[in-house]
Amino acid sequence: MLNPSALYRFETDADHTVPRPGVLVVTLGAFVDAGQIQSVLGGHLLETGDPEVVASFDDDQLLDYRGRRPAMVFDTNRWVEYDDPTMLLHRLTDRDGQTYYVLTGPEPDYQWERVIEAIRELVVRLGITLVVHTHGIPMAVPHTRPVGMTAHATDASLIGDTVSPFGRVQVPGSIGALLEMRLGESGHQAVGFAIHVPHYLAGAEWAEGALAALNAVVDVTGLNLPNDDLVLRARSNQQAIAAEVEGNDDARAVVTALEQQYDTYLEGKQRPSLLATEASQLPSADELGADFENFLRHVADDETS
Fold it and tell me: Do the Cβ atoms of 221 and 175 come closer than 8 Å?
């Protein structure tokens, strides 16, 4: 492995000589982030805090630019803007003055093990006490019921009596998941939360899920994080979704069927898992596709209007 320390640099105006212990919240994207949970949560923390960039990473070594091309702006006869992808470690303080960190940026395409070792070095040098990662996964659940999540950790005591709806499964990897596993192997504490996002909202922003992620971070870390803006955003988002569902017969039928399935699951009468569905209750995937693409466009339009 190439030297992990060469992947990042401390910013010259940031004081990193004295460790300032705190929690690290990782929002580096994932193979799946239904409901844009990571981007909404990370953006909320940076927008409502006073972040200081402590360290930056050499993205040119880590990203496939042709695989996901950064946006540029052309104005009349010249290029004027380049939205360069940046992987940054920010230091913030919560409302009680407690230090914490947020790692933002795109999920690296290359050198995962080297990136993880670089993050582990920063964990040690800065005195980071716990690493938290959260993202969204699509599930057959309705948006009208309490937000569910799957918790996992290097130490089971971090997640208490949380029950997972999954057994042993194989899924595509993400750097957040591998980071949690490698940190555990090296004796560091890490915890993650996979927010259960209604599958019909997987491609849209679901602020209610991001609020649930924020609450999970608060519960496991004890940080006093601001939530007012995200509460308002979630309320507006839910109202827009409700209005679109009410005006769409197919969407209303799907949500009603999912509500019945969810309630039956809680009662423990028929289905052993939230993943179970009955074809007689739900339209086919092809039938849902066009309707929900239109549905999500309307939700987005209502939120920006």
Answer: no
Pairing of strands 52-57, 8-10: antiparallel
d(CA 80, CA 59): 21
Three-state DSSP class for residue 99:
strand
* C-alpha dihedral, 239 to 240 to 246 to 251, nearest 10°: -120
For residues 254 and 283, the answer to whether their CB atoms sit within 8 Å is yes
Beta strand pairing call for 72-75 and 52-57: unpaired
pLDDT in tens, 166-179: 888 888 899 999 99
pLDDT digits (tens, 9 = 90+) for 40-86: 999 999 999 889 999 999 999 999 999 989 999 999 999 999 999 99
How many CB atoms within 10 Å of residue 184?
Answer: 16
pTM to 2 decimal places? 0.83
Give the pLDDT confidence of 216-229 residue by residue, as tens digits: 999 999 999 999 99
Backbone dihedral region of 105: left (phi > 0), alpha (psi from -120 to 50 degrees) or beta? left
Is 101 in a helix, a strand, or coil? Answer: strand
* Token couple for 251: 């969407």
Residue count (the chain): 305
What average pLDDT does this structure show over 3-11?
A: 94
Average pLDDT, the chain: 87
Q: Which residues contact 151 (CB under 8 A, 6 or more apart)?
A: 159, 162, 164, 191, 192, 193, 194, 216
Q: How far is CA 270 from CA 22, 144, 199, 274, in A?
A: 45, 21, 21, 11
> Residue 220 in 3-state DSSP?
helix
> SS3 of 119, please?
helix
Q: How confident is the model at residue 17 (pLDDT cuts 50, 70, 90)?
A: low
Residue 141 — φ and ψ, nearest 5°? Answer: -135, 150
Token pair of 249, please?
């017969």
Tally: H helices and E strands in the chain: 7, 10
